[in-house]
Amino acid sequence: MSAPFFFGAPGRSLFGLLHSQPDAEPASRHGVLLCAPLLQDGIRSHRALWSLAQTVGQFGIPALTFDWYATGDSAGQDGELGLPGMLDDLEHASAELLRRGEVDAVQFLALRSAALPLLAALERRVDPVDVVLWDPQLDGAQVVASWKKQHREQLHESGRYVKVAHESDDGELLGFAVDDALLTALSALDAAHLRLPNGSRVRMAVWEMDESLDRFAREQRAGGVSVEAVLLDEGERPEWDVPSRFGGQVFPRRAVAQLAQRMTEQVPW
């Protein structure tokens, strides 16, 4: 069952979709909060996150997807998306999952750039947290640089505008109005320096390990965090940064199935 609703602080309405199986036996004591990546990746991966949440929910584990404030069906305009607001959104979404899902604990899942606001929020926690990072982007400066590179390529190199020259408006990035404060805040984030509470668990589902992932794992383990990496099927790796695929949907079916299997066979994964 999927139940849409709005929640959040007054004047800051957020859209959520809770996937659950109310008559599941035994009832799960934990739920999953899925965090969408920012800007275009969030649109491209909507179906993949929905499918994962739906599958997990059918196994009796309440799974909540939500739109950040100023994105999707939540209130607000593009330019109002900001890091402090996203940290508040996570607190409200987590509380909403605990209440509506009738669970005692939350496992957080972040795809791509969603790892940055999620880890920044969880660094504030005192008690151990349980996190799944799916193909995470952990270096904020690199994320912002990649967005700006893609923006230039879409304008001038991708062939999107064949007969007319197109220049973007001030503050426009990849078709979104983006506040400079958001880019500055994200650029300052390096997840390797965001220490999760001692005793936390991190599961990384990735198509390939790289230096930034290795460095993150080392730093977290040094702080008493358990980190496990699982490799996904390389043949299905999305072409996130290929200009000609910029508008295409990303739905790696086998990865979604692999994640759902792990998250339902071992609860919590």
Describe this structure in words.
Helix content is 35%, strand content 19%. The protein contains 8 helices and 10 strands. The protein has helices at 40-44, 46-58, 83-101, 115-122, 140-156, 180-187, 211-222, 253-265, and strands at 2-7, 14-19, 30-35, 63-66, 105-111, 130-134, 172-173, 176-177, 201-206, 226-231. The strands form 2 sheets. An 8-stranded mixed sheet has the order 1-2-4-3-5-6-9-10. Strand 5 (105-111), helix 4 (115-122) and strand 6 form a beta-alpha-beta unit. This is Alpha/beta hydrolase. InterPro entries: AB_hydrolase_fold.
- Gyration radius over CA: 18 Å
Helix content: 25-40%
Shape: globular
Give me the secondary-structure category.
Answer: alpha/beta
Number of helices: 8
Count of strand segments = 10
Beta-strand proportion = 15-25%
Strands ordered across the widest β-sheet: 1-2-4-3-5-6-9-10
End-to-end distance: 22 Å
Would you identify the regions where 5 or more consecutive residues have pLDDT less than 50? none
Order of helices and strands: EEEHHEHEHEHEEHEHEH
In round numbers, the mean pLDDT is 93
Give the biggest sheet: 8 strands, mixed
InterPro entries: AB_hydrolase_fold (IPR029058)
Protein name: Alpha/beta hydrolase
Organism: Lysobacter auxotrophicus
How would you describe this structure in keywords?
alpha/beta, eight-stranded mixed sheet, two-stranded antiparallel sheet, 10 strands, Alpha/beta hydrolase, AB_hydrolase_fold
Set down the secondary structure blueprint.
Blueprint: E1 2-7, E2 14-19, E3 30-35, H1 40-44, H2 46-58, E4 63-66, H3 83-101, E5 105-111, H4 115-122, E6 130-134, H5 140-156, E7 172-173, E8 176-177, H6 180-187, E9 201-206, H7 211-222, E10 226-231, H8 253-265
Parallel strand pairs: 3-4, 3-5, 5-6, 6-9, 9-10
Antiparallel strand pairs: 1-2, 2-4, 7-8
